[in-house]
Amino acid sequence: MTSVAPNVYGLDQTALEFATTAASIARDVALPAAADVDANARFPQESLSALAREGLLGLSVPKEFGGKGEGPRAFAATVEEIAQGCPSTAMIYVMHVSAAQTIITSTALAQREDILRSMAEGRHLTTLAFSEKGSRSQFWAPVSKLEQANGGYKTNAMKSWVTSAGHADSYVSSAQNAGASSPMESTLYLVRKNAEGVRLVSPFNGIGLRGNDSAPVALENLFVSNGDLISQSGAGAQMILEVVLPWFCIGTAAMANGLCRAAVNATSNHLSTAGFEHTNSKLRDLPNLRARLAEMSLRTEQSRALLGYTLDEMESPTQMTPLYVLQSRLGAIQAAVDVTDLAMKTCGGAAFSRHLGIERLFRDARAGWVMAPTADHLQDFIGKALTGLPLF
Ligand SMILES: Cc1cc2nc3c(=O)[nH]c(=O)nc-3n(C[C@H](O)[C@H](O)[C@H](O)COP(=O)(O)OP(=O)(O)OC[C@H]3O[C@@H](n4cnc5c(N)ncnc54)[C@H](O)[C@@H]3O)c2cc1C
Question: Considering Cα of 35, then 36, then 37, then 40, what sign does the dihedral take?
Answer without folding.
Answer: positive
